[in-house]
Every structure is written in C-alpha cells, then in structure tokens.
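Journal club prep — side note

Before the paper discussion, L.F. wants everyone to see what a predicted structure for a comparable chain looks like in token form. Sequence:
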Amino acid sequence: MKEILNKMKRDRELLTQKIIDHVLENEQELINKVMGKGEIQGHHDVKELRDIFTHFLHRFHDRLKTAQLDDNSPQTFLTNNTTFSSLENRVSVIALIEGLYEISKSIWTMFQAEAREQFGLSSDELLHVHDLLNKEIKIAIKEILNKHVDSTKEREAQFNEKLNELSVPIINLTSKIAVCPLIGTIDEKRGQLLMVQTLNVCKERKLSKLIFDMSGVPDIDDIVASYINSVIQSLSLIGVHITLTGVRSNIAMTVVQQGINFQHVHIAPNVPQALESYGLKLEETKIRGSNL
C-alpha cells in the first residue's frame, strides 16, 4: 500500500513538473493571448499588466515546484518595489482580475487541446490541473482584493488627515503669531478636532499668539461654544494668548447664554485690528508657513 501511495505521489510530482515546463514554454503565447483581449488591450499601461501577468506565471511555477500552493505564502506577484496604491494609479483592479481569469482560461484551453495528447493526461489528471489553476487564481484574486482594501483604507486615512488640516487651517503671520480662519459650520466633531489641532500646532510651532477669525462661521450651538471655551482655556495653559475676531451677534448670544467668560480673551472686530493690537500692520506681516 505504501509503495502504491509513493508511486502515486511520484506520478503527481512528475505531472506537476510537466505542467510547469509546459506553462513556461508557452509563457509568451499565453500572455499575448490575454493582452490581445479588447478590455485589456485598451488599458492605459499594458506594459505594467504584461509584467504582472508574467510574475503571476512565474509564481505559479515556483509554488508548484516547491509544493507551496497555499494562501499563506508571503511571495507576491503584484508589485516590484512599489506600493499597491501607486500601482493602482497605473493599473485598474478590474483589468488585473480579468487578466488573471483570461490566463487561467488560456492555460486550461491549452491543456485540453495540446497537453492531453502530448502528455497522455487522463481525465483525473486534467481535473488536477484545473484544481491547481482554480486554487492559484483564488489566491491571486484574494491578494488583489486584500491589497485593494488596504490601499483604500490608507487613501481614506490620508484624505481624512488632509481634510482635518483644511478644516482647521493655522497660518503663520510671523514666527510667533498665527491666524486660524474658521469657515462654515462647526459641529461637535469639528469642535473636538479644533482642540486637538490647535494644541498640537501651537506647541509644535511654539506660537505665543493665535487669532481665531470666526467671521466665516454662521452659528454655533451650546456644545460647540463649550468646546471653543475649552480650546481657549487649554491654549492659555500652554502660554498662547488668544484673540477672537469676526464674532457674530448670534454667536455672542450663545456664548453669553452658556455662561462662558471670555474675560481674559482679547476680542477684535477683524484680523487687521487684532494685528494692530499686537503692534503690527497687516501689510508688514509675512506669511511664514501653513499646514495647508
């Protein structure tokens, strides 16, 4: 029984080696068939696709040869010293997946038409080839989709980070004085962001004075008024003097109704007058930097 099992194993290994050799011998023909498809041919970076499909066939060869045809192998066929997010800028995920399916179909067609006669493959052996292909394609597509999800999350995080910066812009007017022009509605989430962003930036840039220009804020509710008060108190604790400009009457009423005391906060009608209170004129200041 053991001898029979060993013989079956040797036969399967021999078959696998034949598959490997045949695939590599016909590599360019396989890839050319795939690249000739209309949806692939019209792709904007066919060279990148051709390289990826070549890497896929080589990985299929290596994994068959070393009997590592499982989805735990760290070897990738997608990238060559580049990130998947940058790859997606040149190659679409749909084109990748369609191309892999075309390669799979081409290999299967090739074996049905040629390898059966050439190698005398039985129906069971042909099914074995089919199973190997299916498994490898599933692993490859899983890799593509996982990397696509990771790349999407990474881009989303970068977008949110940039959006947060734009939501609370802090622009240096001098090395120690900056202005934070707030525009649009301030909700609770943006109020929290305002506190975190201003504290971090003021500490990082060693600012001594910060002007909050609220002329672009139509209204605030009680919760946001409370957040603004917390921001002012927190900045005061790290030695940053706050000036509020452009405060609308309805915002002033909300602040008063909340019982918030801005006694130690300088209030000015607009940014130029706030700068004058610091002994500066707007035309004399020079924008030193921004986190935009």
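L.F.'s comment for the group: Strands lie at 171-172, 177-183, 209-216, 241-245, 266-268, 289-290. Keep this in mind when we get to the figures.
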